[in-house]
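F.,

This is the one I mentioned.
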């Protein structure tokens, strides 16, 4: 009997020890998960966002020191995101379909942007489509503008049951080589359009007698010829920056022209500033105050130390603060002209807005396709060939479009 009792005590001790171990393990793991992917937490003093509610669209804190800062804030974990699934949207490039291309987690799509001192409304596709009724919304820029354009198509189409009522007006399919694409939402008689113009100014023919090293010219004082197609749009959203670097310009034998003069010694920074000046001068003459003009700022890549080190595939969550921002003074030449030049242009007819997404985007190294851009059957790309510049969809460009939506609802635009 004593032996049986002893065996029972040993068994009970082992059982209790197991329970203690399990509880400790659960608490520890739960704590780690919470740190990596925290649940949605509203900012102190800011009421949680009510889904599909337009009441108090923008709530400025009574004790806030200043106005709502759209471009300052934090990425907050939100289980109700994403706003759509890539498999349910036919308007995406294959390269942006990260989850379908084999990315093993979708945590990058579950972070919501929380601006400082205020809330923004949750995107409501029907409300946005009503705002766009009988209007043209146009994106003009590089492939990051294409990223945002496709994001908005997916966000809007989520409210349309009859997908056949959304179509490309010229019957073209979405390919990255198409110069422009115009999608119409028939029920609302509105179009959401994209025009590829990576420099925003004209790529010109070589003049006779051009230096031998010149293989391509950018006419810095002439707008891209595509402007005739989108000049009358109701909402114009511009972006550029990705192509304004040594690899995309000088390595390709690209130089600059102003008037009849080829500028072989002009810096990329000076050329970029001149192109932005050309854009603003053109807008001041060609676009009146009844139109909405937005410049969406540079969306940073995350190649880290240098472009040859293409490592972003191990990033699984946002950064708390961006050392990348602090270590990238070269961004100043992309940002300063956008801020400085409009005030120097004297025109009562010209008004526009900056959509500054640079800082909020710099915090998201986890949002790139990295090695998951080749397609569902091709498998991951080699580690040395990662895409750390474009964005998975759903993902970060959705947040840019939520900022656009908030501005429209609050009367900032339209």
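My design for it:
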């Amino acid at each position: 009997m004593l032996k049986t009792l002893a065996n029972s005590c040993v068994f009970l001790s082992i059982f209790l020890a197991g329970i203690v171990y399990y509880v400790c393990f659960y608490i520890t793991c739960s704590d780690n998960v919470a740190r990596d992917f925290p649940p949605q937490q509203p900012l102190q003093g800011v009421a949680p966002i009510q889904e599909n509610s337009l009441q108090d669209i923008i709530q400025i804190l009574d004790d806030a020191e200043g106005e709502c800062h759209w471009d300052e804030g934090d990425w907050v974990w939100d289980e109700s995101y994403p706003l759509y699934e890539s498999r349910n949207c036919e308007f995406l490039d294959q390269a942006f379909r990260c989850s379908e291309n084999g990315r093993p987690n979708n945590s990058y799509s579950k972070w919501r942007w929380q601006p400082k001192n205020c809330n923004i409304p949750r995107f409501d596709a029907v409300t946005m489509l009503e705002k766009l009724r009988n209007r043209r919304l146009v994106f003009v820029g590089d492939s990051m503008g294409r990223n945002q354009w496709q994001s908005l198509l997916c966000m809007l189409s989520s409210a349309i049951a009859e997908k056949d009522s959304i179509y490309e007006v010229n019957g073209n399919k979405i390919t990255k080589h198409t110069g422009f694409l115009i999608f119409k939402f028939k029920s609302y008689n509105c179009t959401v359009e994209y025009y590829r113009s990576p420099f925003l100014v004209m790529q010109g023919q070589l003049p006779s007698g051009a230096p031998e090293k010149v293989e391509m010219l950018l006419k810095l004082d002439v707008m891209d010829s595509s402007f005739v197609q989108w000049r009358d749009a109701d909402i114009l959203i511009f972006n550029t920056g990705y192509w304004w670097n040594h690899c995309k310009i000088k390595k390709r034998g690209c130089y600059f022209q102003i008037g009849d003069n080829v500028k072989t010694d002009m810096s990329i920074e000076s050329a970029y500033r001149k192109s932005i000046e050309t854009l603003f001068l053109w807008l001041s003459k060609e676009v009146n105050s009844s139109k909405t003009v937005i410049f969406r700022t540079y969306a940073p890549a995350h190649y880290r130390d240098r472009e040859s080190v293409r490592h972003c595939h191990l990033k699984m969550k946002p950064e708390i603060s961006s050392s990348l921002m602090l270590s990238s003074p070269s961004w100043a030449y992309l940002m300063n002209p956008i801020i400085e030049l409009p005030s120097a242009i004297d025109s009562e007819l010209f008004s526009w807005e900056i959509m500054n997404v640079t800082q909020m985007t710099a915090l998201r190294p986890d949002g790139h396709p990295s090695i998951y851009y080749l397609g569902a059957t091709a498998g991951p790309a080699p580690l040395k060939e990662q895409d750390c510049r474009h964005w998975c969809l759903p993902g970060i460009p959705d947040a840019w479009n939520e900022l656009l939506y908030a501005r429209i609802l609050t009367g900032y635009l339209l």
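The chain is about 30% helix and 15% strand.

Talk soon.
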